[in-house]
Batch of 4 targets.
Target 1
Amino acid sequence: MRILIVEDDAPLARSIVTLLRGAGHAVDHVESGEDALVIAADEPYSVIVLDVGLPDMDGFTVLDRLRRRGDRVPILMLTARDALDDRVRGLDLGADDYLRKPFDTEELEARIRALGRRRGGDPTPEIIVGALTINRSAGEARIGSQVLDLRRREWAVLETLASRAGQIVPREILHAEVFGIDEPVGGNALEVNITRLRAKLPPAGPVIRTVRGVGYLLDEG
């Protein structure tokens, strides 16, 4: 998934970014509400994690502006407050979930995964494409009983293609799903990961097809 973290607490933001990138997600981070509104207009985020207490405007204002302009990306609100009316306000403005600080990182990751599945229209944790089964909750992909040994970006490529199996995924969209804005990557980084992934998919698995000049497609094989 492509995830945006809107959090002005630098140590907390770094820990969240490290956690989510380690799980194979492409993650961007901004510290202000204004920056969040600008970047969210241009990037295809699957989930936004939005802190309520921001320096320039509160998270409720950011949430309200996103919804008013028609942005339907799932939003998880983070807050240090425990007031019921704050939670109700966020949900009424269009938040999809709410998590109070301090929180358990495993719970945060689980809630983000659930919101991402909802965004993709499939709330189940598994994606099945022919002999391939991807368990998004466990972070595991297997062909039959064979578990695939995947690097995090290989996992991200496979999950993105599998979630759109049988459809052409344009190269630009696939790149945006796999790599964050500030991640240092070479011009052929996507192709390198596609090549490595193809080598790890056994003959019984699905096939990654190149649609020249457009993108890639995962076929059941």
Target 2
Amino acid sequence: MATLIKKLRLLQGLLTGEAAFTGPFHMMVDVTRRCNLRCIGCRYHSPVARRPSPGNHDITDISWEMFSELCEELRAWNTRTLFLLGEGEPLLHNLISDFIALAKEKGMHVTLITNGTLLDERRIESFFDAGLDILQVSLWACSPEDYERQYPGSDPANFQKVIDSIMTLCRLRKEKARTRPLVRLRHPINRLNFRKVSKMADLALSTGCDEISFSPLKYTKGQLEEYVLSSGEKEELLCSLKTLAERLRLLPIEHNIAHTLLRYDAYTESGAKMPCYAGWFHSRVRVDGTVTPCSPCDINMGSFAEKSFGEIWNGAAYRSFRRQAMTAEGLSNLAGSCDCEHCCFAEENLRVHKLFKPLAPLRFSRGPYAP
């Protein structure tokens, strides 16, 4: 959780318009581009739609040297939340447990995002030893039949393998009287599964997960149109999520339904209703060192292989991005490089906007969040 000083420094930067006086509140670091699945909704490996990220694709895995140097810089910039993920499957990197241990040594709160197919007892034990805080398992399906549809060409038996691995982790955690890692089941929503959000919550409860998390499908610039919900289907989903939230209210599991509802509302195909502040509180580093403002944004902010993170964080590209993202016209100009529909930072953007809005004119004229 960000300290008061860090929040005040964020506001200080916003008032200047371009320069940041504190590091990202949280950072995503890709560890590999390799993957063992072809999820329909994945922008990198989908069999029906792909949008490659910027950078050198001859480099498939982040090096130990780059990761350790990055952790040292992030500590200096007071960044304390780290997400380890990948354009592929992080468990394919043989140093993943070492990365977690190093980040914990540097004072980070670490979340590992995985498809769960490579989880086994040996890896689970290594996560205990490394001090992992949250294990997030992404799962598009709640049955073997659904799994086959969501992951074309994959063995439907993977579904039960993932479920068994989650249960093994929860069992071992209890046997060892540990409180970490927490287990978050992440369920991306598309046209094939939107009527099964309640079943996914039941699955999270039955396997012992601590959290159930939902996320809207990213369109990948229109390439996944056949999997996007119609307006009627969207309304049906929102009603189902509200009903589910009420059912989960007294059950021993956390959820992000309020945030999911906001994501469906705050950013739409017609354009953003408020400025984007992601360039002030978030960053992502790809395996080759390429830095981008967020996951669905392909604007190259610079290379960590060539410059320090501090030089990139307050470099010309980041300053330009922050300046443009503060206005409707600027966001429109960024649309070709950024997929802003159903923004994953909708809640954080709104929180920052409410703090900053009274302090300075934003010159942002569109939507209900305008001053």
Target 3
Amino acid sequence: MDTAADDTMTDGSAGAPERLPDEPRKRSWRTWPPALPPAARPYLAPLVLYGVTKLVGLAVFASLLEYAGDYKEKNPRFGGGAHWWDVLATWDGWWYLQVAEHGYSPSLVRLDSEGLFTVQQNSVAFFPLYPALIRVVSETTGLGLYGSGILVSVVFSFVAAAGIYAVISLIAGARAGTIAAGLWAVAPGAGVEWAVYSESLFVAIAAWACYAVMTKRWVAAGLLAFTAGLNRPTSAVLVGAVGLAALVTLARPATRREHGVRGPVYAMIVAPLGLLVYIAWVGYSIGEPTAYFTLQREGWAHFFDYGAHTLDVLLNLAVGRGDYPFAFYTPDLLSVLLVLALPFLIALMLRRKPPLVLVAYTLATVITVLGTQQMFGNTMRYLLPAFPLLLAPAAAMSRLKLPSLVVFFTTTALASGWYAHYVLFELGVP
């Protein structure tokens, strides 16, 4: 036998040209789509689950609207429009689009009326970050203000879902984080996530701010809390949670030595500035330091009443009365069910021993929502930012097998088109 031939067969080089180690491979259509960066790969599953679930719910919502057809008979500002998708930019969405188009005209006009509303409603009640982003996207892309508002909400809803995944996965694992992102898509009130509303933007900021605190990125946490302060008045709960976590870190010698002093101090100082600056600007522009709070109380009937209104609604619904303000039966009943579930969700969350920032943020959110005079049917929407409540259900569901999860999310996605979308926009006032 030829030994040269044996050597050739042994080294495996026969029949194929040798390629040098540093020789680049030729690209082929088979490499499309390109591989995700390693850091982005963990987020693929939660974002796909979130997106598919939202699309199913939105399709059911559109079908219900077309079946009912009532939206065509309503005022385009108050839940109506020529097409079903116009409903997504009504109520609060109308105000955001007004700010995006015309800016602010701060004023405090007293009305000659009795009851809850004694001040004329004004657009300064709606914080500037979301409408500013709408205007920027519109000017940059050429989209109309409506399309830009939807685009901003949809994009930041995915950012929020990724943030929820990041937070929950740190505590309960990647599978639980993925499920939590899916649960947020079908949560009560989730219909506003893909509407001209600021919830998606706020939750995106809040989730990543909490993640920054959990990973000791104090500068990022402070800047995110500052940004949240330009988006919603409820950013006060995030500001407080970040500040409390920073204060506790400084109070403990071990963590102070490990993480230093500058980062937590920076977060404590910067976090509240966005909220304070905007409220101060409203007061300065109108000429009354407390003008923002007066407008919220007497123009929108939103003010902290230590839970008196919530208790009144619960008692009235318990005995079958509907003589309290803003009685929208179905949304109120769903909100009651959610409120009754809160003690269990909070207790289960605390059993998982989450970081202080999540506990403070969640409890402050719940206290603020339940302790405020407002339209009770919107409780579902107002509690949407309390995403850490998803921790325990997501951790428990992470033990389920894939077929069970598919059945669950298919069912809830279909149902969410009614309870999380249609109920808010068509049966209630979001």
Target 4
Amino acid sequence: MFSELEKEALYKVIYKRRDVRTFLTNKIPDEVILNILNAAHHGPSVGFMRPWNFILVSSDEIKERLAWATEKERRALAIHYEGERQNQFLNLKIEGIKQAPLTICVTCDPTRGGSHVLGRNSIPETDIMSTACAIQNMWLAACVEGLAMGWVSFYKKNDVRDILKIPLHIDPIALISIGYTDNYPEKPILETANWEERKDLKDLIFKESWGTSSL
């Protein structure tokens, strides 16, 4: 069992965690990086497949190339918006790859575990779901270590494969910027920018079947 203080600490970090885009250049101690990766490696995975790998990038040259890939995709995505919405999108700071001292590419190996993995044969996407659980553990661990983390999701996967020399069958799920920050937001960036609002939980809960209110 857990004490009230331990439970309070868990919920505190869940609610405090933010997607951060502004970083200091201060180096992260190696033992802290290992703590974060070990938390990820202890994430739940379907069939205990643990399909993840972690590519640690601190080279300015490689980070510059990754930033190019994300900015190229951001510009391409901007055409889906018009007028003020497009300006709002382009003004959003969506990546801090060049600023953060460390970028981690989290990958997913769909062949991990062989041709039969308990659970994956029924739902193939469970390898990606498992990798996402590892990333969430990284986020919570980074938060308690006093670090900021940003998940960059704007890029073409083949660009990242080429830059990081990732085999074609490996899926680059996320580029993660990690570093210290002096600007840890109280609210999610997109909520502060009035891009989107958090939906009321009671409107998302059904009872027994879809669309039947439970409250």
